[in-house]
Amino acid sequence: TVDPAKVRALRLKARRLAQTGKTEAALAAYVELLALDADDALAHVEVGALRAQLGQGAEAVAALRRAILAG
Question: Which of 34, 46, 41 is nearest to 68 (CA)?
Fold first, then answer.
């Protein structure tokens, strides 16, 4: 089962990292969050945005597609 408190904590950590320009660390936190809850559409959107910032176009598109599917 998904631990909502852990998911919330990871989301906050990832947001803080992204806001302070630590894109790769934020991406890692979102990947960790998705390991706990693969159906988290918002996390997939954030992964897509971060991958786009890192110049990972194909991976960004794939993450956004997963967000749509997780809906």
Answer: 41
User: What is the per-residue pLDDT across 17-59, written as a single tens digit (0 to 9) for each?
Assistant: 999 999 999 999 999 999 999 999 999 999 999 999 999 999 9
Q: Residue 60 and residue 44: Cα distance in Å, rounded?
A: 9
Q: Could you give the count of Cα atoms lying within 13 Å of 17 in the half-sphere of its Cβ?
A: 18
Residue 40 Ramachandran class (φ > 0 left, ψ -120 to 50 alpha, else beta) = beta
Q: What pTM was estimated for this model as a whole? A: 0.93
3-state secondary structure 8-63: HHHHHHHHHHHHCCCHHHHHHHHHHHHHHCCCCHHHHHHHHHHHHHCCCHHHHHHH
